């Protein structure tokens, strides 16, 4: 199972499960991830230590490299 916020694997028998009134279930590896999602309303793609941020950053870097190559040609 993966953390809803940071994307890290959660070992079985650990972590926090949060159920919303709507029936949506969220799994968190730490209280830090839970608070970032529920209380602080942060987006994983904008938080530097999450897996989703790293994916977005890699995409951005490759796009910049391709733009520089096109501009050089």
Automatic annotation (TrEMBL):
Residues covered by the TRASH domain: 3-39
GO cellular component: ribosome
InterPro entries on file: L24e/L24_sf, Ribosomal_eL24-rel_arc, Ribosomal_eL24-rel_N, TRASH_dom
Keywords carried by this UniProt record: Metal-binding, Ribonucleoprotein, Ribosomal protein, Zinc, Zinc-finger
GO-annotated molecular function: structural constituent of ribosome; zinc ion binding
Top-rank lineage group of the source organism: Archaea
Similarity-based family: Belongs to the eukaryotic ribosomal protein eL24 family.
Protein name: 50S ribosomal protein L24e
């Amino acid at each position: 199972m993966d953390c809803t916020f940071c994307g890290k694997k959660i070992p079985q028998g650990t972590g926090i499960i949060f159920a919303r009134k709507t029936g949506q279930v969220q799994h968190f590896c730490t209280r830090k991830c839970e608070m970032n999602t529920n209380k602080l309303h942060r987006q994983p793609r904008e938080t530097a230590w999450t897996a989703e941020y790293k994916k977005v950053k890699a995409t951005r870097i490759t796009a910049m490299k391709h733009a520089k190559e096109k501009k050089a040609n």
